[in-house]
Amino acid sequence: MKYYEITIMVSELGIEPTLAALICEGVDTAEVNDPLDAAFMSDMLGETDYLAPEDLDKESGKEPSIVVYAPADSEDASKEVFASVKRAVAAVCTNASNGVYGEGVDPGSLDIIAEVRDDDEWKDRWKEFIRPAGIGSDFVVAPPWIDMNEYADEFEQSREVISINPGMAFGTGLHETTSLSADLLLAYTEKGARVIDVGCGTGILSIIASRLGG
Fold first, then answer.
1. Which of 102, 113, 111 is nearest to 13 (CA)?
2. Coiled-coil annotation: which residues (predicted)?
3. Residue 160 is inside which H or E element, if any?
């Protein structure tokens, strides 16, 4: 399915006024891309399930923006959304000029960028952010499309690579429930142990248990 991605370029101080103006125009769903959020995550968390520190740094260097989506298969609906966005931006410009948001407050360029997108573009985009995940000192979990030679400086070649094609939530080895469970397996699984993996998903914990328990 195709849809319009309508991006409004704003400043940090322009995020809230622009969101408020959009709501007043009946646009009740919007995506906020605030680089300060990425900077906070980078400083406080180091990495997330799918974003490595270098990816967070890249996100934190971008300009703030607000994104609104409109269906491309309905001309009337898309025209209505575009008109609402334009009215909201015009209102923010007027209010900023009149000092409504405070003296000298600059809401940003408020440029509107519209692009046609397709569902197929994002279905596999998450794969770009998957990284190998070290499990203890013996294993590393990686999807089949990753070349482990590119991570030779990060993971010892003596580690056994467990290649799993992950879903969009579990199977990467980075999710806390996976890594914490793997830590317990590493600590308590002995040779000959019998392990039941309930709700196994991709089976990553079962594979680790089989390697440990023999």
1. 102
2. none
3. strand 160-163
CATH architecture of 2-122: 2-Layer Sandwich (3.30)
Write the pLDDT tens digit of every residue in 40-85: 666 665 555 555 666 666 666 688 999 999 998 888 889 999 999 9
Report domain extents, the chain.
2-122, 130-212
Q: What is the pLDDT of residues 111-144, one digit of tens each?
A: 999 999 887 777 777 777 788 888 888 889 888 9
Report the alpha-carbon distance of residue 73 to residue 165 in Å, rounded: 33
- Do 172 and 196 form a contact (C-beta atoms < 8 A)? no
3-class secondary-structure state, position 204: helix
pLDDT attached to residue 165: 84
Among candidate residues 6, 9, 5, 7, the one with its CA nearest the CA of residue 109: 9
Kindly report the backbone phi and psi dihedral angles of residue 139, in degrees, each rounded to the nearest multiple of 5, phi listed first: -125, 155
Q: How many CB atoms lie within 10 A of CB 56?
A: 22
CB 172 within 8 A of CB 49: yes
| Exposure of 207 in the CB half-sphere (CA atoms within 13 A) | 17
Q: pTM for this one?
A: 0.62
CATH, range 130-212:
3.40.50.150
